[in-house]
Specification:
Length: 150
């Protein structure tokens, strides 16, 4: 695999590792943001209550830990070139849900709308990069003419 692809994948993964670690190091703040944006649906509420009783944590706290861990694990796996397509698909789903709940620019007034739109576009561009990672998978296969002839 060409050096630029390896380096690019490394830098791309660092973003998710950093964001996930930041969420895990400030779980209470992340949980407060989640609580402000996400409501537990009625169909899932009994299960969420059971999970809260088993762990002794609130649902937003559990979601904060899960999202931080997901980003760190997926980032490390993409960086290490292991299960790349699977973790890219998982991150695409995660970013799509994250964009819907947390970058709701369509409900914001003028100054906040620009920041939210920028967050949404950042997530869309990350999804695009993840699609490229899915396309490449673990790397260039034998016989692939993508980098030959230069």
């Amino acid at each position: 695999m060409p050096a630029f692809v390896i380096f690019g994948r490394f830098l791309f993964a660092v973003f998710f590792i950093y964001v996930g670690a930041t969420q895990l190091l400030s779980v209470s703040e992340t949980a407060a943001v989640i609580a402000a944006h996400v409501a537990v649906p009625e169909a899932v509420a009994p299960y969420a209550t059971q999970l809260e009783q088993m762990t002794g944590m609130t649902t937003p706290t559990l979601l904060a830990i899960a999202s931080g861990a997901l980003e760190v694990i997926a980032g490390v796996m993409i960086m290490l070139n292991f299960g790349v397509r699977f973790f890219a698909f998982v991150l695409i789903a995660y970013l799509a849900v994250n964009t819907y709940f947390f970058a709701d620019f369509w409900n914001q007034a003028a100054p906040e709308k620009g920041r939210m739109l920028l967050d949404a576009m950042k997530n869309v561009s990350l999804i695009g990069a993840l699609c490229m990672i899915i396309g490449y998978g673990r790397g260039v296969r034998p016989g692939d003419k993508a980098y030959s002839g230069y």
